[in-house]
Design a protein that fits this description.
The chain is of the alpha+beta class. The chain has one domain. About 25% of the residues lie in helices and about 40% in strands. The strands form 3 sheets. A 5-stranded antiparallel sheet has the order 1-13-4-9-8, with no helix packed on it. Strands 3, 6, 7, 10 and 11 form a 5-stranded antiparallel sheet that branches. Strands 2-12-5 form a 3-stranded antiparallel sheet, with no helix packed on it. The radius of gyration is 23 Å and the shape is flat. The protein starts with a helix and ends with a helix.
Length: about 190
Amino acid sequence: MGRLVWAALLAAGALAMAGSAGASVLSACTTGCTVSGGFDFVDYTVPSDGQAYRWDLWTGTPGVTITLASPNETFDTEIVSNGDGTFHNGAFLLGTSYAWSEIQAPSHTTIYTRSLQADFNDCTSSSPAGICAANFNVWGNSAALSVDTLNPVTVFFSQTAVPEPATWALMLAGFFGLGAELRRRRAAVVAAD
């Protein structure tokens, strides 16, 4: 098999893993919850990997609009080098450190979110003075999900990681390569006849 064929297979595998990836973004309602007017979630977390995630919330009840409040706290915990081989810890509330887009349609809400910073740890005994490690957190503290009905409805939730454009490009290139390889083999078979 050619390199592009292998690239297509690897990209497809990466997409399959991306679809099931991810920390538990919502720790309630992952298999459906019954709500009437509003419901407070247990905390949810946006993974600090800089990757985009798609969240879908839906109900089988026609015409019900679902709303999920965006994350309400963003902070980081840091390891700060003193410049002499010793360290101290710090924690700070952040400003905007995530992206949030909510698309509402009757009975279905889709949310795209991304943490804009990724965790890192570059601390060594020779680290210069300053921040050498940080853990970024974006979370909702009992963020409310609401529906525009007073009658109980069941809301379901799913989360998938959104593949990066480079992953899609690699997969498409692999499929083009697979098609070219099949055409070449078909032409070789016809020529042999």
